Amino acid sequence: MSPATQGLTDHQKGLLLTSLGVLVLTPDSLLVRLIDAEPFTLLVWRGALQALGILAILAVQYRGRLNLPFRAIGRAGLLLAAVFSGCTFGFIIALSLTSVADVLVIVAAAPLAAAVFSLTFLGERVPARTWVAIAFTLAGIALLVSEDLGSGSLVGDIVAFGCALCIGATFTITRHARAVSMVPAMVVAGVFTGLAALPFALLLESGGLLFAGPQLGYTLIMGLVVVPVSFALITLGPRYLPAPEVGLLMLLETVLGPLWVWLAIGEYPGDLALAGGALVVATLAGHTLAGGRRRRPALT
After folding, report:
1. Exposure class string for 41-53: b at 16+ Cβ within 10 A, else e
2. Tens of pLDDT along 218-248?
């Protein structure tokens, strides 16, 4: 662990790592809009660059001895990679079948899924304040996308619900294997995503898979900076923070992402969206403050 986190409690470490990761991830939606590519072609690039970016981080961290971290993740790491890759595909498919609003609201149930999985499989009791926070954040996300809510298809909504379950499962798996860093599993997940998307990209993309100009630049920023750095940090979060709390913090990306789009290309999210986002941020701040007062110091 970095010297910057020395002296922090486990809860504080988890909050710091996850929050930084989510903040780095917030421009992701804007970059996807600016790239404006066929979804499966974008997934090929995203998966490949995610793998390369996180691999570079690990190479620096472990001074080139990459066999050590990859061997350490074991079967849990492979399961995590498969589930995370499935989540990515589920999100893309859901967006193609139903409205963005429906997808965002249903995927916002991921903290609820993480709470149920943690209680069922890990035996970790979920505090009442977390259940209350989950309810308020769901209400905030619903308000954020209320103008378009309910305009999608049932099949797409079901796929989005499956994506929410996968997100909750990724945090629960990482929490279960918290004795080992699961960051290398994100390299494997990137490989899985890129390879699985490649046949669809070749079938559906008539203009070729290569990007150029600004499109290439935005893709490289997304794939080599935003995605690897954010997911590396977020994957470390459940080592110190319960899975439902990591899921709650992930909702900040849903709230802050549209603000980047507004600032960059002038797409105003609407008054209700801003009100819903404010409710989510206030809920997460209150939840964090309430939880921080009852944490024991981290083990050294």
Report:
1. bbbbbbbbbbbbb
2. 999 999 999 999 999 999 999 999 999 999 9
Whether this model's pTM surpasses 0.85: yes
Q: What are the two backbone dihedrals, phi and then psi, of residue 237, each rounded to the nearest 5 degrees? A: -55, -50
The C-alpha R_g of the chain, in whole angstroms, comes to 19
Tokens of 300: 């050294």
Q: What is the pLDDT of residues 188-213, one digit of tens each?
A: 999 999 999 999 999 887 667 888 89
Q: Which DSSP letter does residue 119 get? A: I
Q: How far is CA 290 from CA 110, 116, 162, 239, in A?
A: 21, 21, 31, 20
Q: How far, in Å, are 29, 42, 91, 148 from residue 218 at the CA level?
A: 11, 11, 21, 28
Is the CB of residue 285 less than 8 Å from the CB of residue 279?
Answer: no
Amino acid identity at 70: F
**Residue entry with tokens 């990679």:** 81
